[in-house]
Task: structure prediction
Amino acid sequence: MSDDPSNSTHFGYKTVEAEKKADMVAGVFHSVAAKYDIMNDVMSFGIHRMWKRFTIESAGARPGMKVLDLAGGTGDLTAKFSRIVGETGQVTLADINDSMLKVGREKLRDKGIVGNVNYVQANAEALPFPDNHFDIITIAFGLRNVTNKDAAIASMLRVLKPGGKLLVLEFSKPQHEIMRKVYDIYSFKVLPKMGSLITKDADSYEYLAESIRMHPDQDTLKQMMEDAGFEQVNYTNMTDGIVALHKGYKF
Result:
């Protein structure tokens, strides 16, 4: 590994070469893609649906809008946005991982969602879209896996239209000590065992637990969005801050 700290980053609690992180994260999601939806329901006791519903409501999408569901995985948000924006709108489901994108495409097509959704394999740090293109961007449980988060936030700002909004739904920092202790036990003792039983892959869920702890807390992420140029940035804690929804606007 290079001795230059600027060329290193975190993969969970490990320090790795920055250029290798994307492939390592890809390996995690290739491994869990087929059982991703099942694990989401099991490990969150179904509460992830409430978090995502609040995100959809906060987005304020309307018919005719263009929405980017970044790191959209298996398409939960895309499915909802597709119905909201209607035939005159468009939803782009983008993910860096082709296994997740494939699962998402098959899932949405099985639901009959085909007309106004397109699928793009894309790196959040260098989005392959024109400037000022989308009305809304959401990234749900994906930012913590990005190697250069500042670059990704700047890239999202670039492709948003003036007046557009970014919504970042991500695991964050519980607000109360008792919840933090319970959450740590659950994350590092229970979650990998669930992963082992359901996906035969404890290591990937150990990484996911570690990646949550390494992600910036609520106020740090708010500052990162402001530094990138987003305005009126605010966040809402859910489930005591286990998850937070950050929202910012481009003017």
Observations:
- The two ends are 41 Å apart (CA to CA).
